[in-house]
Amino acid sequence: MTEDKKYLIIHMDDMGSSHAANAAGIDLFLKGIVTSCSVMVPCAYAFDFIRWWKNNQQFDTGVHFTLTCEWDNAKWKPVGEYTKTSSLWNPDLFMWQSNDEVLQHADLADVYHELDAQIRLALQWGLVPSHFDRHMHTITSNHELCDIYMDLAKKYDMMYQVIKDEYFLPTDSIIDTKPIDALIGIGAEPGLNLAQKTECLYDTFKNLKPGITQLTIHPVIDTPEIRYIIPDWQERYDEYLLFMSDKTRKVIEENNIELIDYASLHQLSAK
User: Fold this and answer.
1) DSSP letter string over 5-49?
2) pLDDT at 131
């Protein structure tokens, strides 16, 4: 790794959350521009995505630790048995909707059991994950939860998403995890049209700093289902269109950005 090199992980969150997310993720992987993703194991389409991945194992895929169910029109439950995760279930027997509710109600032992169950289920379905990361960053909301995040990474000898100088990063890394230097999104303000978002994204590429950056996106294709489920479906569909564009790849190349995934990050961490 050279200090003046610009490395970029283009990472898709929320695989498994809907058919629209899975279809977008598969398209973008096959397009060859997106480098990584993670799966929400408790969601209805997680098995479907992992089944596809088993025949396409060259694509870098992790487990997206999920402790919240934030949408009004689509719900999912913990995958761990109720007797060992009861504090993670809301009165309607789904996951809590917000981080604040999780922090108010969750027992730490229940959190550990649930996330361990998510990993074990993904493994049972055939996934060989490249890393662990965090849906809505719930698992890194406080020091006690951060300890669970790192303990599970140690248990499974797995890289975990962490940012350089993040408050919970231990002084002595417990495994060979290479912190990323920055975690960013496209950065466009809500309500911008596709052309405006495109300009914002390309400015991000032009101004990318040397080091390791993760750009997180949440792409979907346009379906009646996703329009019903997600209020900001248009934002996510625009992200899909942006990264299906050949111009986007060209701008990345013009700015001397090297695309990497978590497997590459693991190799960098060993140097």
Assistant:
1) -EEEEEEEEEETS-HHHHHHHHHHHHHT---EEEE-TTSTTHHHH
2) 96
CB-facing half-sphere around the CA of 124: CA atoms within 13 A: 10
CB 208 within 8 A of CB 181: no
| Phi/psi at 260 (5° precision) | -135, 170
Return the sign of the alpha-carbon dihedral for residues 147, 95, 16, 241. Answer: negative
For 6-269, which CATH class? Answer: alpha beta
Domain ranges of the chain: 6-269
The answer to whether the beta carbons of residues 22 and 227 sit under 8 Å apart is no
| Cβ atoms < 10 Å from Cβ of 235 | 19
CB-CB contact of 174 with 207 (8 Å)? no
CB atoms within 10 A of CB 203: 14
Q: What is the mean pLDDT of each run of 10 residues along the chain (271 residues)?
A: 86 98 98 97 98 98 98 97 98 98 98 98 98 97 93 94 79 66 85 91 95 96 97 95 97 97 77 52
Going by C-alpha positions, the residue among 207, 216, 202, 213 that lies closest to residue 249 is: 202
Q: How is residue 158 written in tokens? A: 């797995």
- Amino acid, single-letter form, for residue 156: Y
